[in-house]
Design brief:
Layout: H1 2-6, H2 8-33, H3 36-67
């Protein structure tokens, strides 16, 4: 639970990205296949994996910025 509370900002950001990604993926998959079941399947599989990877990507960049104090592109103090 502490992990969730500590990372709530990134979890919310990841969730919003996930919904956006699924929507775009479903539209693209349907446009390509013309098959609603295939479009839904593809749109859930790929973005789910991407959302998980995105979370850890954000955490890695946060760690890099914390190890390099004084950089202009570091994570804002409010995050």
């Amino acid at each position: 639970m502490a992990l969730i509370r500590k990372n709530m900002f990134f979890i919310k950001k990841t969730a919003s990205y996930y919904v956006l990604h699924i929507s775009v993926a479903a539209l693209v998959a349907y446009a390509v296949t013309g098959d609603l079941v295939a479009a839904i399947t593809l749109s859930l599989l790929e973005p789910t994996v991407q959302a998980i990877v995105f979370f850890f990507h954000e955490k890695a960049w946060q760690r890099v910025s914390l190890q390099s104090p004084g950089q202009k592109d570091s994570v804002p103090a409010s995050v």
